[in-house]
């Protein structure tokens, strides 16, 4: 395993997230706003921007705190101050766990309310990062009930005419407005990652109808959202697989299921390969195979993963830079693989796309182990680690934080400070791009992003579950 991956378990990682969690509750408890992104330039550089609690990203920051809690409970050997061989400042384990648990309790509160929402498909993203861990780590039945309620709410958005779950109620851009609930039915590739909630609830409720909705949705998107890609076999190393890219948004006729239009809301163009959309597809279909064991879904997940890797490996040479004696950046995805590169000295990236795709590839590697395909298992595991290690080399914030234990700080509570005074950046990763679409806006380009950090920490926890750390 690349040594750079150990940065995911560093004191800096813990310290940053503790500080954001504690400071974010000031005049915001219970939370009415949640961390979303960290500007890399401008007046508020380095500080998390908090977004209203009903925005689709609200679930990721509580998920970050729960990921840290999971480490403190199940994997103390990688948790700073808790049994780590190199620590010189031991901290009572129960104190830090209590701190994390208190923060979890504070940030998760409003998330329960979201389970009743029927105006969004993002309930998997909103609920699962925190509520599922709260149930599985602390046996909180209220969290399980909210997960099951949320699954039913998500299922209520299923349209039998389309044989899919409605993603958005509207799409408003400079050149178009789509907002009819009777004439339009918008489905985005991101929706594949919300199916996990339906599968999970189906098992707990012994209700196969929820899983059937998820499977039907996944099959519909195989026909509507996937594009077959042709690349040279010697380049793809795909062992005769069919390779796929995907469309971001498809608008259907709600009654007939006929496709009216294919678009993008966050990529460069309808026919381009938006990197995070490709990553959502990899993870979503890998999860769907994990639940169903239907090899058709596995084939799609592998085809999406292979095309993602091929695009990384064949990206222009300008993606590589030389730092600290080595070349880095090859495996940090461009924000859209087909978008013009506006500045070859600093190509626009999306670190979140990379860590999301890596999570999907790690899940694929486990599936291949179960099938006895050791070659592909090793390929996807190695690729996932290579992507995340390169992202840490290229995108990890150099502004670090450290923890002052109570004895050192003179305070009863755990304190966090900058390693270098005045050098602060709240997120672990930089260079994420939520949106650079010319038909929408450029507010979300090249910054820290909450779900980039969440999927980075989840990747680290996934490696722990697999026994690689």
Automatic annotation (TrEMBL):
<comment type="similarity">
    <text>Belongs to the glycosyl hydrolase 88 family.</text>
</comment>
<dbReference type="GO" id="GO:0000272">
    <property type="term" value="P:polysaccharide catabolic process"/>
</dbReference>
<dbReference type="InterPro" id="IPR012341">
    <property type="entry name" value="6hp_glycosidase-like_sf"/>
</dbReference>
<dbReference type="InterPro" id="IPR008928">
    <property type="entry name" value="6-hairpin_glycosidase_sf"/>
</dbReference>
<dbReference type="InterPro" id="IPR052369">
    <property type="entry name" value="UG_Glycosaminoglycan_Hydrolase"/>
</dbReference>
<keyword id="KW-0378">Hydrolase</keyword>
<dbReference type="GO" id="GO:0052757">
    <property type="term" value="F:chondroitin hydrolase activity"/>
</dbReference>
<keyword id="KW-0326">Glycosidase</keyword>
<protein>
    <submittedName>
        <fullName>Six-hairpin glycosidase-like protein</fullName>
    </submittedName>
</protein>
